């Protein structure tokens, strides 16, 4: 997904083509302001690739967009079963949008399982495109259909388009030297071509992608392109699709700049690379593969030209151990994981707290506990990030709000880690990691200066006048200790997990010293400079909706709905969860009611109640999926009226 949003000239050209097409063709072309499409099929049907390509072309066209990939945890789940259904939802519009959408306007179902798993989410009147070739008696019985839903009237409330996708694909590829099974694999490209025709999506980017992806297999590339074109031509010629649709570019939704479509994990990866360049430090990633964080390891491994070193360790503990060693050696050190990996890394995070070295711990949260729901989203690691270590081991916590915001959050986490010499948690989640949206590529001049000064020589004078290096002599403003590169003459010092004496860094078991060091480390975190939380409250509301992380999109969409309906409601969203912004207490005091939606059982609400003695109301969900805007709007309306 690397397409840029098209320029105004290119967008104008697209509009001209649309006008010419309407003038030349007999089919009706209707203009819409937004559309929600869901592709669904077996996990081996290529639905994620199909969605990715449609998304890239939509970004290229200039629409605002938001996506929601949803797939099984198994590499190849049982074919034709409900647990094996993979889907990709895309919401695109001619205006600013915030979520992948609540209910699809269009469902492309490649088999009976895909239809049954998704039909309940569709509103009446939605378009349903089904691959009739897969609706065999055995396939339908496998998912509990006693009669064919294509014939028994159960789909009468929808605009049903029965299309023999498999047969049409095989027929389109009969000139290629492919077996039927090989030809059938291109049916997702046929479906992509059909949907591209329906919504006037560009096609050149997809054809370039297929040529590149199958560069070593030109026959396969040609077959996929042929299937893609056949799908387009089918839409153009068949009588079943009498209408196509246009969604104009979102010309007013974006500030001026160069844009591209980007996923959360990719944005986070780029943010880490940018942080290392702005800090003038090599970037080191010590990681063990785990869903949904592995894409960061994959991406960073491609950027050796930027001084990035990636180490795929044998386990989670080795990954963070190597990263902490790299921090000691003067690198911008990162370890990536998800909730189960955080549990294994907890002792080394505590060691990093004791050593007071910069380290980024990136937690791409997923459903738990234990292995839980590896490919589903959740926000349930907040308390683990705050307190999941032995002893008093405070760690700053930063959370991005959207996929594109993962870039800025990575820079912010690096700023805190380098400035205050501390490990920092960066809490993303599966929804942000796999979802995507347009991102304005920043100019380098806009990025923060993260350069640090390593210790160069002695920093303390003893009573006898001799000059020595004290590794725990602190900056009076930040309370950060000096960062001394191993091997620097005269800067030899001890490190380790046993408590250090203030200043000298010698091993100390003195009770008073331990009390002082524990309180000093806490004071360092409490004193971190973070921006005040901003409140969106244009009407002087009495109810505040407070969120964090990936709930930003659904909350904002719900707040907009309520305001359009005449309700008065305020909104604030936290990026910094430890320490909280200094003005948060005064903000909370201004409102009669505070509602906190979370994809957990109320973890932020618990912290807010404890720290500010505010009777915060939790609204929670832990079903592995993000909130729907309509659902949140109803819950907030109830809170306002209650």
From TrEMBL:
InterPro entries: 2-oxoacid/accept_OxRdtase_asu (IPR022367), PFOR_II (IPR033412), Pyruvate:ferred/Flavod_OxRd (IPR050722), Pyrv/ketoisovalerate_OxRed_cat (IPR019752), Pyrv_Fd/Flavodoxin_OxRdtase_N (IPR002880), Pyrv_flavodox_OxRed_cen (IPR002869), THDP-binding (IPR029061), Transketo_C/PFOR_II (IPR009014). Residues 44-231 form the Pyruvate/ketoisovalerate oxidoreductase catalytic domain. GO terms for biological process: response to oxidative stress. Residues 286-499 form the Pyruvate flavodoxin/ferredoxin oxidoreductase pyrimidine binding domain. The keyword Nucleotidyltransferase does not apply. GO terms for molecular function: 2-oxoglutarate synthase activity; magnesium ion binding. Keywords: Oxidoreductase. Its EC number is 1.2.7.11, 1.2.7.3. Residues 541-613 form the Pyruvate:ferredoxin oxidoreductase core domain. NCBIfam families: OAFO_sf. PANTHER family: 2-OXOGLUTARATE OXIDOREDUCTASE SUBUNIT KORA, PYRUVATE-FLAVODOXIN OXIDOREDUCTASE-RELATED. This is 2-oxoglutarate ferredoxin oxidoreductase subunit alpha.
């Amino acid at each position: 997904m690397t397409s840029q949003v098209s320029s105004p000239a290119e967008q104008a050209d697209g509009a001209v083509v649309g006008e010419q097409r309407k003038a030349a063709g007999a089919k009706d072309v209707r203009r819409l302001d937004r559309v929600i499409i869901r592709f669904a099929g077996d996990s081996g049907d290529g639905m994620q690739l199909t969605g990715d390509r449609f998304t890239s072309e939509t970004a290229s066209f200039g629409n605002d967009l938001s996506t929601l990939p949803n797939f099984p945890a198994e590499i190849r789940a049982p074919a034709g079963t409900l647990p094996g259904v993979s889907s990709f939802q895309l919401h695109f519009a001619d205006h600013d949008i915030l979520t992948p959408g609540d209910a699809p306007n269009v469902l492309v179902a490649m088999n009976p399982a895909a239809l049954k798993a998704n039909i309940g989410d569709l509103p009446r009147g939605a378009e349903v495109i089904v691959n009739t070739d897969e609706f065999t008696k055995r396939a339908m019985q496998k998912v509990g259909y006693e009669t064919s839903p294509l014939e028994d009237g159960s789909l009468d409330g929808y605009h049903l388009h029965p299309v023999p996708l498999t047969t049409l694909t095989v027929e389109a590829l009969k000139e290629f030297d492919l077996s039927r099974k090989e030809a059938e694999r291109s049916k997702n490209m046929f479906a992509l071509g059909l949907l591209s025709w329906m919504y006037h999506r560009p096609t050149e980017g997809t054809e370039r992608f297929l040529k590149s992806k199958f560069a070593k297999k030109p026959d396969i590339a040609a077959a996929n392109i042929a299937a893609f074109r056949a799908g387009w031509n089918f839409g153009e010629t068949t009588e079943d699709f009498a209408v196509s649709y246009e969604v104009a570019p979102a010309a007013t939704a974006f500030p001026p700049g160069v844009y591209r479509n980007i996923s959360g994990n990719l944005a986070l990866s780029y943010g880490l690379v940018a942080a290392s360049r702005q800090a003038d430090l090599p970037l080191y990633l010590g990681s063990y593969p785990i869903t949904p964080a592995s894409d960061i390891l994959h991406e960073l491994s491609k950027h050796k030209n930027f001084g990035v070193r990636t180490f795929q360790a044998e386990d989670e503990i080795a990954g963070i151990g190597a990263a902490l060693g790299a921090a000691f050696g003067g690198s911008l050190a990162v370890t990536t994981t998800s909730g189960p990996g955080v549990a294994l890394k907890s002792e080394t995070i505590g060691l990093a707290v004791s050593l007071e070295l910069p380290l980024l711990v990136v937690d791409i949260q997923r459903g738990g506990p234990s292995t839980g729901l590896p490919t589903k989203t959740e926000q349930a690691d907040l308390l683990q990030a705050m307190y999941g270590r032995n002893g008093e081991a405070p760690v700053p916590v930063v959370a991005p709000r959207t996929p594109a915001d993962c870039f800025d959050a990575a820079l912010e986490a690096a700023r805190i880690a380098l400035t205050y010499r501390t490990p920092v948690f960066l809490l993303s989640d599966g929804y942000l990691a796999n979802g995507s949206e347009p991102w304005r590529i920043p100019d380098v001049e806009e990025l923060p200066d993260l350069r640090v000064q390593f210790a160069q020589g002695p920093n303390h004078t003893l009573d006898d006048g001799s000059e020595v290096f004290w590794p725990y002599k602190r900056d009076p403003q930040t309370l950060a200790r000096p960062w001394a590169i191993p091997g620097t003459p005269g800067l030899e010092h001890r490190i380790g997990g046993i408590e250090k004496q203030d200043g000298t860094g010698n091993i100390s078991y003195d009770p008073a010293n331990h009390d002082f060091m524990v309180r000093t480390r806490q004071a360092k975190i409490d004193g971190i400079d973070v921006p005040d939380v901003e409140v969106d409250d244009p009407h002087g509301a009495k109810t505040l909706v407070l969120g964090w992380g990936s709930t930003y999109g659904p909350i904002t969409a719900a707040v907009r709905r309520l305001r359009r309906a005449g309700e008065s409601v305020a909104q604030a969203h936290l990026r910094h969860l430890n320490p909280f912004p200094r003005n948060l207490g005064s903000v909370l005091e201004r409102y009669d009611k505070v509602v906190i939606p979370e994809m957990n059982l109320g973890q932020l609400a618990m912290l807010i109640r404890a720290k500010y003695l505010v009777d915060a109301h939790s609204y929670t969900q832990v079903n592995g999926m993000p909130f729907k805007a309509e659902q949140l709007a109803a819950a907030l309306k109830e809170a306002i009226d209650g």
